[in-house]
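We were asked to recover a plausible sequence for a given structure. The inputs and outputs are reproduced exactly as logged, with field labels preserved.

PROBLEM: sequence recovery
POSITIONS: 383
GIVEN STRUCTURE:
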């Protein structure tokens, strides 16, 4: 093994289950730092200087059919403000709305996004008839002019090669889009109350996400990133997840395998009963393994059950040790995580979520320092 690897080489070795020169160290979002950068390239350079590893990202824009128009407006009442969005299509109108927080500055409601969350009031799909209008919104990306996408992808690839980091392609997962179109509560209840509608929307959406993934796999990427955050026992039973969502995941994983590009799935918690399902589906990288919360992940158990067939990423509470600002506490947190996850390779040290903006920058530095000090292979962790 070379004495020093590039960040890309290190991460790829971890993806394939091997021991690199040291455990890679990666972040989702670093709240104390991210606001100071103009773009992801500046951020990557700063994190590399700090000693962390980085992924540059690519994703496909959603292009509606040319005859679609939309408008947004804010409704003000005595108690709240509500942001509305209406799409006009040749097959009719679709409408969505979300309550704004006291200081909310949103000016749009993305079609396939989870930012509405519990504040969503209306969602685009009411009945199966609305799928005719949805067809004009979920347009096959190959039917649009992909020249800007290809040019941007080439630029990101050049920057990644210059920096020695990987390129991550973010795909729109069908289940997340399902939540955006129907609403979280309706999806959870719909498994029992409206199964036909739920399946009809899922089939429609999957046809689109499949085409997005196929286009994404033709771009110069090193890994596909897929959010599985709502396909968990926090919301659904293991049986319902296996019946409704796992077939879609297996199909996505098969496309990635055919392209020889690893599939990285993110599910913060609530997947302990499903670990073998993820491995059998063909997931190559599984994150973010939160050790806290209502459905915490047992890190040693995760490693024991699927550590030989999946690269594991995460395992560190993204709030507690980062908000404490105590370097000694951070060191012990990193050490305990490495003991559980790093032996044998196939592990990436990472917070389980976004580090909050109010965390001290020194906490981020302490995390990286501890990971670099104790994560070098062959491991020699103090007792």
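RECOVERED SEQUENCE:
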């Amino acid at each position: 093994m070379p004495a020093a690897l590039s960040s890309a080489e290190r991460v790829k070795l971890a993806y394939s289950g091997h021991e690199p020169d040291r455990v890679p160290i990666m972040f989702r979002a670093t709240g104390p730092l991210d606001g100071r950068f103009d773009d992801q390239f500046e951020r990557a350079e700063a994190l590399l200087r700090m000693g962390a590893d980085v992924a540059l990202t690519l994703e496909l824009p959603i292009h509606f059919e040319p005859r679609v128009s939309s408008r947004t407006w804010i409704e003000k009442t005595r108690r709240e403000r509500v942001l509305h969005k209406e799409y006009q299509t040749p097959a009719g109108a679709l409408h969505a709305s979300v309550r704004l927080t006291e200081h909310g500055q949103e000016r749009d409601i993305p079609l396939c996004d989870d930012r509405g969350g519990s504040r969503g009031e209306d969602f685009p799909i009411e009945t199966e008839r609305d799928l005719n209008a949805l067809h004009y919104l979920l347009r096959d990306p190959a039917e649009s002019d992909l020249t800007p996408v290809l040019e941007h992808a080439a630029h990101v690839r050049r920057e990644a090669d210059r920096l020695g980091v990987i390129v991550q392609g973010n795909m729109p997962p069908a289940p997340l889009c399902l939540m955006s179109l129907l609403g979280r509560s309706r999806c959870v209840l719909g498994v029992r109350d409206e199964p036909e509608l739920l399946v009809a929307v899922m089939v429609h959406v999957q046809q689109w996400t499949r085409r997005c993934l196929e286009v994404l796999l033709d771009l110069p990427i090193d890994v596909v990133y897929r959010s599985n955050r709502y396909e968990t026992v926090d919301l659904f039973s293991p049986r319902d997840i296996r019946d409704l969502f796992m077939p879609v995941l297996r199909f996505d994983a098969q496309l990635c395998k055919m392209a020889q590009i690893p599939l990285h799935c993110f599910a913060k918690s609530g997947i302990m009963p499903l670990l073998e399902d993820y491995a059998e589906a063909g997931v190559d990288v599984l994150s973010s393994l939160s050790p806290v919360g209502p459905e915490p992940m047992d890190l040693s158990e995760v490693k024991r059950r699927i550590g030989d067939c999946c690269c594991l990423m995460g395992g560190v509470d993204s709030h507690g040790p980062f908000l404490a600002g105590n370097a000694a506490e951070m060191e012990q947190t990193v050490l305990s995580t490495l003991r559980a996850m790093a032996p044998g390779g196939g592990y990436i040290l990472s917070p389980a979520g976004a580090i909050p903006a109010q965390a001290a920058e020194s906490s981020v530095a302490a995390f990286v320092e501890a990971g670099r000090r104790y994560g070098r292979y062959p491991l020699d962790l103090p007792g």
